[in-house]
Amino acid sequence: MKKLLTIALLALTMNASAAQPNDTIVVNQAQVTKWIVDETTNTKGARVKKYYAIYNGELLSTSKMVYEKASLCQKHGARLSLIAIGKKKNGKFVAKRIAML
Fold it and tell me: What CA–CA distances, in Å, run from 35 to 13, 16, 29, 62?
């Protein structure tokens, strides 16, 4: 009985997540105007760094790895393949995060 209930819940969860897929678009690296590292403290008092990028005038979160690779590419004049992950709302793409391709 437990296995059947677990399978049913897993199927419902997979179906619900499949209904809202993430959309991705290719990011033109020239449109990323600024990379930001923000140091904050979490609820336990530990220092935490958060990484962001300004893309088309919007603040998007990113990861430490993407930030470090973008900095390395800027230093050496190389190009980095980036994507923006987000969702479509009312036919318009709303980006939430920048990642590497």
Answer: 35, 34, 11, 9
Mean pLDDT, the chain cut into blocks of 10 residues (101 residues total): 62 53 80 92 93 90 91 88 83 75 64
Element (H, E) at 35: strand 32-41
State the DSSP code for 45: S
pTM, 2 dp: 0.68
Q: Which two tokens stand for residue 33?
A: 């105007």
Element (H or E) spanning 16, and its range?
Answer: helix 2-19
Partner residues linked to 99 by β-bridges: 83
* SS3 assignment, position 87: strand
What's residue 20's pLDDT?
52
Please name every residue paired with 36 in a beta bridge, in sequence order, or none if there are none: 52
